[in-house]
Amino acid sequence: HVEQRARMKRIFRQAAFVWSAAREWTAGSGRDGPQVRVMLEDGTRVGPVAISMIANSRPYTFLGDRPMDLHPRASFDTGLDLITVSVSGTTKLVRIALRTFGRGDHLGIAGVDYHHDLARFVVSSDRPLPLMVDGDYAGEHREVVFTSVPKALRVLV
Question: 1 near 23, Cβ under 8 Å?
Fold first, then answer.
């Protein structure tokens, strides 16, 4: 949504992303409740969940100079980290989001599950849902397989 509005992004910067997320949450397709399921490599089933976010580094992003530490144990040196949120109430989601910028205790909130250092897992839904990869829209999918590829990228510091 934001990428389609370059002028808005240029003027409002990160506030444009916050506005877009709020707009999508209140009027978008995500209000239908939990629809995503996750199958972990060991056969464990997670879900249905309303939100799933994957990372291999931290912080997940920034709002201004404030880090959003969504996946507190994520690292380039380990597999993928997955956080799922099974609740879809606005009050709870705002509480979770605020804690990712503050105390970092969002993982203790009921309905939030965290999986660290995963080699492979599958995210699926009965109907096609939008997928974002590194902030870019990657189409709609019913199933996506996520695989960690150790040492696939050389990071220079």
Answer: yes
Beta carbons of 78 and 117 less than 8 angstroms apart: yes
CB count in 10 Å sphere of residue 125: 17
What is the DSSP track for 6-53? HHHHHHHTHHHHHHHHHHHHHHSGGGG---EEEEETTS-EEEEESEEE
**CA–CA gap between residue 85 and residue 97 (Å, rounded):** 11
- Helix extents (H) in 31-115: 90-101
More confident residue, 47 or 64: 47
Measured distance CA(39)–CA(144) in Å, rounded: 11
Determine the Cα–Cα distance for residues 9 and 5; give it in Å rounded to an integer: 6
pLDDT of residue 19: 62
Q: Which residue has the tokens 């699926």?
A: 124
Tell how strand 80-85 and strand 45-49 pair up. unpaired
Distance (Å) of CA 38 to CA 12, 42, 108, 146: 35, 11, 20, 10
Cα Rg of the chain, angstroms: 16
